[in-house]
Amino acid sequence: MQLTKFNYDNKIVRDFGIATIVWGIVGMSVGLLVAVQLIWPFMNFELQYTTFGRVRPLHTNAVIFAFVGNAIFMGVYYSLQRLLKARMFSDVLSRIHFWGWQLIILAAAITLPLGITTSHEYAELELPIDIGITIIWVVFGINMFGTIIKRRERHMYVAIWFYIATFVTVAVLHIVNSVQLPISMWKSYYLYAGVQDALVQWWYGHNAVAFFLTTPYLGMMYYFLPKMANRPIYSYKLSILHFWSLIFIYIWAGPHHLLYTSLPGWVQSLGVVFSIMLIAPSWGGMINGLLTLRGAWDKVRTEPTLKFMVVALTAYGMATFEGPMLSLKQVNAIAHFTDWIVAHVHVGALGWNGFMTFAILYWLIPRIYKTELYSTKLASVHFWIGTLGILFYAIPMYWAAVVQGLMWKEFTPEGVLKYPNFLATTLQIIPMHMLRAVGGTLYLAGAILMTYNLAKTMKKGRLLANEPAEAPELTPVMVNERSRHRRLERKPVLFMVVALITILIGGLVQMMPTFMISSNVPTIASVKPYTALELQGRDLYIREGCVNCHSQTIRPFRSETARYGDYSKAGEFVYDHPFLWGSKRTGPDLHRIGKKYPNKWHFDHMLDPTITSPGSIMPPYPWLIEQPLDTTTTKAKLNAMRILGVPYTDADIDAANAHLSQQAETIAADLGDQGVTVRPDREIIALIAYLQRLGTDIKATEQTAVAKTED
Length: 711
Known about the structure:
Main location: membrane
Organism: Parapedobacter luteus
GO biological process, one term: aerobic respiration
Domain Cytochrome oxidase subunit I profile: 16-468
CATH topology of the largest domain: Cytochrome C Oxidase, Chain A
Binding site for heme b 2; high-spin: 344
CATH architecture of the largest domain: Up-down Bundle
Number of helices: 29
CATH class of the largest domain: Mainly Alpha
């Protein structure tokens, strides 16, 4: 048989590997900055660009899309070429993909600290960057499928199935979640509102974790773990069951992030059912990985790469058991909005994604540089430091979550809240946050140690940019394969279409009724659109990242209604583009904050939170008092909202800034009566207007009803 000679492209693998290391250090460093700000708020250095609200999404984007994203591309470009016995389809597309992705990361690093954000979790980047992501993702897809089409190995190995599912699903998620109406270059409003927006966001958010942080890593696990252990994958049949059940079930589970909210109950129930079912395929993948090490456990003692892999798979098993447990309503009622969610996410991110990335880097870099790892001992030290880092991070967060969940719900024998002041809980868990910061420091130190080790390894060797390889050309199929799945594996386009249909089913079933049947999201007559000033204030609230600490949805629990007020209704959010329910309570819920405190209280709270809340870990926002409100976009914003279905009239839009100024003058005058001198054109006035509006439509209706009864 005649063999064709060709070269693997190791340069693109090296480039993505270096980017993984660099962005990993950056993302983890920003994460440490975020962590210490929850202990010492002055660690924002009194700059508006480094406050928790702005930097926290920078951390998540840097870790998910910069660190993990580059690691995915590193692993895919290395394994895909070898599994298909072919060089990547186009070196030019590979370079465009690499530099385009780095530019997207750089754009995120610039815009997020500036407050240019959509507020959608894991999708905070504004429309121009979203368009860039779409273009680069298509470039990646063309390059990947071009390589699959020109392959010299007819059979598509398990890893490639996961790569294909990752590509098509992330494309669908990104496009659906990014449908926005632009106001200006860097400001857009989501097409969806309120409950619908929440459903789309967490359909996207949950499955971004599934198909960006999970499926590509499972693909890499199926390739790299057998290579590291020098053992075949434990079960081919289990891999088939694992793959198809995982991608079908995962897509349904998003609503478990919205339990006890005003999302329709039937959608919540579907989310719970499929979340519980998700344990089976998830653990199927973990078991397939761990059992691959049968007969190779002696190597785990001496090979750092296998140590990292074993802990990564264990962390994956823990996280994918914990997720379904958190979707049980009884557990969710206590754990949601607490630090348990933070711990859960980081067991996956640090253990599963981080440790597998480290393992692949330690295994891959010496091979493309044709040398030995500089120091196996340093790699083992990194393993133990990193493992301690995970433990010091996760365990205190679980403990903090138990404290939060119990303190928030505790009543005295007389039937009143034992801890009515939210701050009491915050102060109680600061020691746990300190330990979390210690854990983050250890984990970062381990990553820095790895960087040194790999840099010395690169210096010791020499990159084999074009690695020689040979394989026979693809020949026509001569034997009728009995297995249907085997036949499917030989048809990449059909495989992609089947995977696409599989992942679309769950999303369509959950979202279409909510969008097409109006009774699923009932309206409330008393709920009116925001005034021009309130809308501007809402955008400032989004800019400052307040939603990262404060939820805006009150669940129907006695403890929450006693603390915050009446529970939230679906009809209250019909004009909210985007929704701002939040996913974590570092501070109290704000949905009923309107009219609860005078304007001066809000002014003092933003000037220096310790004035109104001694011991608060919220940073001050003096720039809101100093900076003038930009009113040049007011009409454009109202007009865009009208296009999206908010009932603003021509008169509302034409007189938008006049009405804005009038309301601002009223608030400024009230502050003046209370001894505060502030100009009505400052940003603080708009933010106060928005905060004073929250939840008052329902309150006003209830008060009117009571007054009529008394008459």
